[in-house]
Amino acid sequence: MSEESKIRDAADAVKGIVEAVPIYQDALQPAAKEIGKGLETVAKTIHIALAPIAALVWGYGQIREFVTTRVAEKLKAIPQERIKTPSPTVAGPALEALRYTGHEENLRELYANLLATSIDSETAASAHPAFVDIIKNMAPDEAKIMRFFATRTPYPVVDLKITFKEGGGFKILHRNVSLIGVDAGCDHPQFGANYLDNLSRLGLIEVPFGYQLKDSKAYEPVETNPDVLKLKEQFKDHEKVTFEIDRKKVDVTDLGKQFITACVIDKAIQTKT
Predict the structure, then answer these.
(1) What digits encode the pLDDT tens for the residues 201-218?
(2) 61 burial class (0-12, 13-18, 19+ CB within 10 angstroms)?
(3) Sign of dihedral through CA atoms 96, 91, 253, 109?
(4) What pTM does this model have?
(5) Are 170 and 164 in contact (CB under 8 A)?
(6) In the predicted model, what is the mean pLDDT of residues 87-116?
């Protein structure tokens, strides 16, 4: 075979490969198009789901208006000589956090009180920088609970457990059960125990081991709650276990009391009193 023939054959082979590639791509194209359509649909759905978030994120104008109205209102009874530039370690992070929490009324009120506290020279020391991060880690319902605890602690909670008749062991079925979700007016009262766990994690409350309220009647509402009675009925006359209720209490920590003073109790009300 001449060199010319070899070159021609090689060229034909390359041509054949090149021509085959579009056919191969076309064979996959319908599947690729379907996948593309699926991804496009998901992307559009996600875009629609996230679109309202953009409207909820506060801009500089909204934050400025909030400070010059709501925060200013809380300080209107404060003598002007007490108005001072707040610490940037408090005001800076608080204003930034408002960008993402300003749409939540219960949380923005905490920030408003914290900012007002930090601007008043007589109360600025109680505006701890950590309070900004604490609020950032709180659910709106937890803000309601802290507002409730401002006037109602200690508060009754119970553990629901079963004790084994043989061996003496026990198992806790539900921990820190209470009616706090209802009493505090939470939007999701079923998460009351979870809210207490988080507030304890943040250092605002504690459930001291081995302590309970002296007034036994304080436990009647939770112990006679239909859900508790239903669970108790399940273990009635059980051969191996007995159902028991351990009474406990929730206390506000010293940090929690400072938080309530700086962030929870309305600054305007504090000024009047």
Answers:
(1) 999 999 999 899 999 999
(2) exposed
(3) negative
(4) 0.77
(5) yes
(6) 90
